[in-house]
Design the sequence.
């Protein structure tokens, strides 16, 4: 059997390549199909000389020992008690689709490097834009993360409102600024820094007690920034804040944006999945007035890391404002090379696992996953309220519940996090928000049920007794 | 057997999940292990209703029919005659590693989302930085493409030389500019546009007859741009130009950069692989003086799309200049969350397939792939010269050979491209360069041999006779 460094196109290494790939399948099934029997958050261990890049190959046993170690040191996302970070285990076809993506090596940079998928991705993006009600001229593209989606939105907004792609910002009298809730994601600060506005180019708008943008403060901040000689060009609404999953008042923000001629970008990186649900879709009312929307499928849509998109109400104009030609590529005119309209150049075909996963489950299944995860979060919230032991940073809008024991310190919260992991096998995170730490449950996991939630609530009570 | 939408953590869907994953393995082996029997560039075909996102699931046969269609419409990279775009078939362990990456769903954004790999990736990046001689304080991070790597380099350069991450560029008297060869990649124009400099913020430096930067013109352009009131802060050298694979005179550019206090970024996205080879490493002499280097592994290092990195000579300073905190994350101080120092937020663990692929082949195998591909390109060049039928845009520095028949039109070149595909089963690309089209052979394919090359040369001669 020939060594399958590569899959030989004449079949000579096929048997060995199959052995390697099926061994990988079995390795990951041994691990993932047994996830409930291990702790949701593994203890860190050492692997001496894990990282070597030797002249001669490692043996395949050495390779698979390392691969197994990586699996065992990863978060145990599939454990029913894992309701930690804003992330979910991937679907089976997300894994299969990613393998096909790697093997077929389409590159979304250019039509000749992704000849069929170059037509498929824009069609799928139009479908998503339609779900958000962005209208007949909408469309978009996939990107490697929500941070990049937000950056491409802000760059497009800036070019559309203030300048063009050729001339840049030089010589303008007033410094461009963006307004966003103080609870918005830091990717906006990063985008402003990259764009040369500096992180201070994002003006924080007060968020109310439910972490939703305060419209009066938005009005005031726009006025003040203009008085101070700045030039607001964009307001960012958040549908699903990073810590608490709350949703800004989208219709009111849209009115303010229109009144002041500002680009409206909605960061629906997290909350966009509500659009799958008939029951919860209305929470996104107003999003249809956005000029751009960012949305991540590796969170509440169970794709692998990463699967993100940026959508525009007017895709033609968005392309025009962002376009940088790649004259070395051979393509129809006007160019069909997606890389000319994207923040990225080379880009993997995330569209393959996206379609296979969604077609395998069906959209009704996705809707159920949204509905039932919200029901569970509400169940958790009620259970926690009944203990009368904890306080909350506000109402819940999605499936995220943050809490902390009354009159506790950050150190107490950390102890409680550990207690819940050990006693209830529930893995929560401990984000910093409004000056203190909170325990955060983000109920995405498809295998989490009421028993898990009730175990959490019960363990909280025993901890209170013990402490 | 339960339906395996997900891999059940208690094993209930294991058998079905295995069936889906092994079926995927066999689908891609049926396709790739038979690649030599199909044309290197498939004819476009239609698949009615390929894109549907229905409420109820498709059958699995419908799914796999679609998956097979995607494979068949993709470029046939594994065919020994595919020597087209700057891309290569992936190694077997690149495919296996990507599957593990998807299944384990590490997210390089934060330590708690990628607990073990957060330490591994920086160590591997230091190893690569060492290969480029960047010194004891060097390091870097992976990114989703070379375009992003170049953008992060230029943003870091700008922040380091002109401003800081908080304040941005406002209020500066002189507009910042970057200098790069006219043969450099358009990702630099894209970066300048994103950064608010506009595409005109990249000043093109003349490239000589071998597509290498003209140092006298660089000196002159720096002086002229200063005289015109601009503020040059960075010069970009290219090691492996996009069309012809040539290498700028790195030591001379480094001297000029030092003389003028400019940040030196080397775009080694393509040519960086020369560092694997004892024979060809010296072509990169001078790269060790770079402040930053970008390098793609999905080209000459046979990873899947994508696998890119940005490396810095002083990683501590680079981090400081780029850092945007994610206060919601729980991490040691100073932060170990890689996302705070990266253009990306969420980021897949490309480090898994990188290590598995390189450990499976061994670095000596990678060196051989570099050496033998260059030998083949030189063999092609000699064969083409002997026909006396074609002209070249200059000398070759790597493994890329561009040519066009004497006194031919662009239309002739397109006809010849098609002739070579049909008669010699060789797939070349047809980039636009210096005002005209060229046939381009990029010899990356590990299965291309002298027979393939000789078939190309022979077919060229018969075409000339016929035309």
Sequence:
């Amino acid at each position: 059997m020939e060594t399958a460094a590569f899959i030989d196109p004449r079949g000579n290494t096929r048997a060995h390549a199959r052995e390697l790939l099926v061994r990988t399948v079995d390795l990951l099934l041994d691990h993932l199909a047994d996830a409930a029997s291990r702790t949701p958050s593994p203890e860190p261990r050492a692997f001496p000389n894990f990282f070597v890049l030797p002249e001669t190959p490692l043996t395949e046993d050495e390779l698979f020992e390392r691969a197994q170690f990586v699996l065992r040191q990863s978060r145990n996302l599939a454990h029913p008690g894992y309701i930690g970070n804003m992330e979910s285990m991937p679907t089976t076809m997300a894994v299969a689709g990613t393998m096909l993506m790697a093997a077929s090596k389409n590159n979304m940079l250019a039509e000749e490097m992704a000849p069929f998928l170059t037509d498929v991705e824009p069609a799928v993006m139009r479908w998503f834009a339609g779900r958000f009600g962005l209208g007949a001229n909408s469309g978009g593209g996939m990107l490697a993360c929500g941070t990049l989606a937000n950056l491409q939105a802000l760059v497009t907004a800036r070019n559309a409102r203030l300048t063009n792609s050729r001339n840049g910002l030089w010589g303008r009298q007033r410094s461009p600024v963006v307004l966003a809730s103080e609870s918005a994601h830091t990717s906006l600060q990063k985008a402003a820094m990259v764009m040369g506005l500096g992180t201070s180019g994002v003006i924080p708008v007060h968020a109310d007690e439910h972490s939703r943008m305060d419209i009066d403060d938005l009005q005031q901040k726009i006025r003040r920034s203009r008085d101070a000689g700045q030039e607001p060009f964009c307001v960012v609404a958040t549908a699903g804040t990073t810590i608490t999953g709350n949703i800004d008042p989208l219709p009111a923000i849209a009115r303010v944006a229109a009144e002041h001629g500002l680009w409206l970008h909605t960061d629906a990186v997290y909350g966009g999945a509500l659009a799958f649900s008939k029951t919860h879709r209305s929470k996104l009312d107003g999003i249809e007035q956005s000029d751009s929307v960012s949305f991540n499928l590796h969170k509440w849509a169970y794709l692998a890391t990463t699967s993100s998109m940026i959508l525009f109400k007017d895709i033609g104009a968005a392309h025009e404002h962002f376009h940088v030609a790649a004259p070395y590529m051979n393509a129809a005119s006007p160019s069909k090379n997606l890389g000319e309209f994207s923040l990225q150049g080379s880009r993997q075909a995330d569209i393959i696992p996206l379609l296979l996963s969604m077609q395998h489950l069906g959209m009704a299944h996705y809707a159920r996953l949204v509905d039932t995860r919200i029901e569970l979060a509400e169940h958790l919230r009620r259970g926690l309220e009944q203990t009368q032991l904890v306080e909350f940073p506000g109402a819940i809008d999605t499936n995220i519940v943050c809490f902390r024991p009354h009159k506790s310190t950050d150190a107490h919260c950390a102890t409680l996090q550990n207690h819940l992991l050990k006693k209830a096998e529930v893995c929560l995170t401990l984000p910093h928000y409004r000056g203190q730490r909170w325990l955060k449950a983000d109920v995405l996991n498809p295998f989490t049920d009421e028993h898990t939630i009730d175990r959490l609530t019960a363990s909280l009570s025993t901890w209170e007794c013990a402490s």
User: Anything to note?
Assistant: Residues 363-466 of chain B form a domain with the Aspartate Aminotransferase, domain 1 fold (CATH 3.90.1150.170). Residues 353 and 454 of chain B are 34 Å apart (CA to CA). Chain B has two domains: 106-360, 363-466. Residues 363-387 of chain B form the longest helix (25 residues).
